[in-house]
Amino acid sequence: MLFIGDDWAEDHHDVELQDGTGRKLATARVPEGVEGIAKLHALVARHGGEEPMPGQVVVGIETDRGPWVQALIAAGYRVYAVNPRQAARFKERYGTSGAKSDKGDAHALADMVRIDRDQLRPIAGDSDQAQAVRVVARAHQTLIWERTRTFQRLRSTLREYFPGALTAYAGLELTSTDAMELLVKAPTPEEAARLTKPQITAVLARHRRRDRDQKAAAIQAALREPRLGLPAPVAAAYGAAAIAHARLLIALNEQIAVLEEQVSAHFLAHPDAEIYLSMPGIGEITGARALAEFGDDPTRYTTAKARKNYAGTSPITRASGRTHAVQARFVRNNRLADALQRQAFCSLQRSPGARRYYDKQRARELDYNPALRQLGNRLVGILHGCLKTRTLYDEATAWSHHATLPATA
After folding, report:
1. Tens of pLDDT along 83-128?
2. What range(s) does the Transposase IS116/IS110/IS902 C-terminal domain occupy (predicted)?
């Protein structure tokens, strides 16, 4: 067998080849792209034969996506995506000085997959459709997170010079496009006070708001309330900064809506979509995010516990001497955790069994978040069973052993 450590950079890869005893066979720096992958295959052929058997070449690399990783998988290599945090801890056995080099990183990765590959997770063999869902779902969620960050910056700016805008536009959702258009139209308190009711109504009508006359009147009244002001040049400077953030939010809203359509289209084209959508609390976007992070490799999760551990919903035990504690997992896939938390919350209104289970956790004096996490953990187990047996969710079957739980008051 050959073991390869691949320390990747933007334009090149430092690789080291080892045999089963840890003897260094070759080191090289190969470029990114077709030329580099060809040179890597040539090194493998030189030391492992022209056509190594499947599983004879094991690669450790600190990423799980990209054309390079796909090329390694297509060549029949067993590829392990090593968490950078794991790699950093592993390298501490070589010394504590903190010295670092690309060759040293490649050597450590080769050692990891040779010695500890049973403790590592190989890259799942997800289908092309699942990979497509992952790309658009992650991009969509990233834009939503970016919108939140941008709005927080805008909110901080408005608090410094125009807090009345936060009050006036609160009824429109402060990140909405029509609220941002009104802010662009009148970025300072003086300009906002001069906005007329027809001007405000026209913006609301363009975005199909209901009760436009009442909302326009309320906005106009809030903008005209007397407030403390700043000198005109300072207010104008703040207004320019607010316009920049508002225009960015308008663009983000537009692209989020476009990507949302792509997420739904790719998700509904996947054969597992029907099973995900049968689960309580899961819609198209939440289902797409869960599918994107779980993947669809049928061999990846051998048990429901393995899926729960990956999801981060199952607790961990810390025991040392007389100390024994059961705690929540905080090192986890945040994208998947967000989707499962949302599903658990929404299932409370959609599933009587989920509601009873949640009430049972609260009766044990668990707080809101721990109880919701326990419910999410249970729902992950149910999802695993549905995917394994290729059956849709059934309320009676899923909660049959909880049927005797007391109903919520």
Report:
1. 888 888 888 887 777 778 888 899 999 999 999 888 888 887 889 9
2. 275-358
With contact defined as beta carbons under 8 Å apart, do 264 and 364 qualify? Answer: no
> Contact, 290 vs 276, CB < 8 A?
yes
Q: CA-to-CA distance for 255 and 140, rounded, in angstroms?
A: 9
Q: What is the pLDDT of residue 54?
A: 63
The answer to whether position 227 is within a domain reads yes
Instruction: Give yes or no for a contact between 172 and 209, defined as CB atoms under 8 angstroms apart.
Output: yes
Pairing state of beta strands 57-61 and 2-8?
parallel
Residue 95 CB-density burial (10 A; 0-12 exposed, 13-18 middle, 19+ buried): exposed
Cα distance between the two ends of the chain: 63
Looking at residue 367, the DSSP 8-state letter turns out to be -
Q: What domain range includes position 313? A: 276-402
Round to whole Å and give the CA distance between 170 and 346: 24
Lowest mean pLDDT across 109-118, 198-207, 395-404: 395-404
Q: What percent of the chain has pLDDT over 90?
A: 68
Asked if 375 and 353 touch (Cβ cutoff 8 Å), the reply is no
The answer to whether residue 409 sits within a structural domain is no
281-315 pLDDT, tens digit each = 999 999 999 999 999 998 889 899 999 999 999 88
pLDDT (tens digit, 9 = 90+) per residue, 145-176?
999 999 999 999 999 999 999 999 988 888 99
Closest CA to 228 of 174, 164, 165: 164
What sections of 20-66 are H helices per DSSP?
Answer: 34-48
pLDDT digits (tens, 9 = 90+) for 335-348: 999 999 999 999 99
Tell me, yes or no, whether 270 lies in a domain: no
Query: Which of 44, 61, 52, 55 is CA-nearest to residue 78?
Result: 55
Q: Mark whether 163 and 182 lie in a shared domain.
A: yes
- 118 and 148 in a common domain: no
**In this structure, are 247 and 142 located in the same domain?**
yes
Domain edge (last residue) among 241, 265, 289: 265
Domain boundary, last residue among 91, 123, 155: 123
Specify the DSSP class assigned to residue 118.
Answer: G
Estimate the crossing angle of helix 284-294 against helix 232-268, to 10 degrees. 70
CATH at 41: 3.30.420.40
The two three-digit tokens of residue 312, written as one number: 């981060």
The number of domains in the chain is: 3
Residue 271 located in a structural domain: no
